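My current task is to audit a protein record that another person submitted. Alongside the sequence sits a line of tokens, each denoting a local backbone shape. Please read both lines and tell me whether the tokens look consistent with the sequence. Do not assume that whoever made the record got everything right. Thanks in advance; the entry in question is below.
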Amino acid sequence: MQATKPPLSSARHQGIKTHLYLIGNSTEGNCVSADESLLDALLLSAVHLTWEDCSWKGLLKYDVTMCETKIIGGEKDLLNQFNDKWNLSFPAEFEKNTLQPLGPEKPTHMKILRENLLFCIASGEKESCQSQLIPSHAIPMHGFLILVNVNPVEYGHIFLVPYGTKQRQEFWHKEMFYLISRFAKENCNCSLKVFFLKSSSTTPDYAYFQAAYFANHLPVELLTVINVYDCKDNKGVSISELADYPLKTMLFTS
């Protein structure tokens, strides 16, 4: 993959530079397996190095890989993790200390970004189908910041935060879904799960995502589905409902 300088819009926080992964416009993806995924290799190496650095600096209050786990017997074999150091109020603190200051530059925010930022992803040029990795690039507008989660529930737990004018939203844009779905597809590793949790703070909702590596399938992935509507004439999207699940859950398959 050739690294070229893209015509990105003006970037803020010029003092912070990081690896920039530009996702191409090819609908076929840029890898065949996880072993051939540049994005997966970049994420794993960044997570490993940054987590080691955060642990050395004392930013990680615990080693999630050493937490005791237990399978709860039953129909679904749920996994329980015993971690008395996990901070229940951390999501609200993260939104207050990291997300809210993303507009005006503040010393505290700059410090958090430098310590927790892994790299950034953004859409590449419209005429380019190939993804590109650009080392040491200023943070662009309209991308996703990949931040390490210092309060993890599993190895590789990260935040994916929209940056720029799309950072603070009370609703989701199709561009956000496109970029986050391309990130998941291009990663090519079935162990990486991308998910969304509703804002826990009293401030306006922040539309950001999370991701982590899970060695096994999550129970929700193995449940029986009930077909609700087969939209074969609507770009191949089918809608299903999860059976025997405590939450009302819809499944959209493309």
The radius of gyration is 19 Å. Residues 1-11, 103-108 have pLDDT under 50 and may be disordered.
